[in-house]
Design goal:
The chain is of the alpha+beta class. The protein has 2 domains: 2-40, no CATH class; 57-121, no CATH class. It contains 3 helices and 4 strands; from the N terminus they run ααββαββ. It has a 4-stranded antiparallel sheet with strand order 1-2-4-3, with helices on one face. Strand 3 (103-108) and strand 4 form a beta hairpin. The longest helix is centred in the first third of the chain and has 20 residues, at 21-40. The protein is rod-shaped, with a radius of gyration of 31 Å. The termini are far apart.
């Protein structure tokens, strides 16, 4: 029984030299734990999911001193020009409540789908 406990103590204190059978057993157990334990044990260590920002709006300045808003097409609803304009004002109003639209255009991908809207806002005096 004393030999059993001394063997366990040697495993705990890692006293066996490399190339020894006991060393190989310890390494095998460690590797088995690393690769097999995640399948059986729920460590609950998954990263927390952050909700994505619902609306993507990027604001930059243009050469004339005004601003250019780039609004994700998923945030804009409507089929007519007036509906799209109202939707753009609503989305951009979350960034700047007193915004005015000078002009806007739809940016399309290769397949012709609208991916975003570029909206020009005049410079403030």
């Amino acid at each position: 029984m004393k030999k059993f406990w001394s063997t366990i103590a040697s495993y705990i204190w890692w006293t066996y030299p490399r190339g020894n059978v006991h060393y190989d057993v310890m390494v095998t157990l460690i590797l088995a734990f690393i690769f097999l334990a995640p399948l059986k044990i729920n460590f609950k260590d998954k990263p927390q999911e952050r909700p994505q920002h619902p609306i993507l709006v990027v604001v930059s300045s243009d050469a004339g001193g005004g601003l250019v808003y780039r609004v994700d097409a998923g945030a804009v609803h409507g089929s007519s020009d007036a509906q799209v304009r109202d939707s753009l004002l609503s989305v951009m109003g979350q960034v700047n409540p007193d915004v005015e639209i000078a002009r806007w255009e739809a940016v399309k991908d290769i397949k012709g789908r609208v991916t975003e809207y570029k909206v020009w806002v005049p410079a403030r005096p």
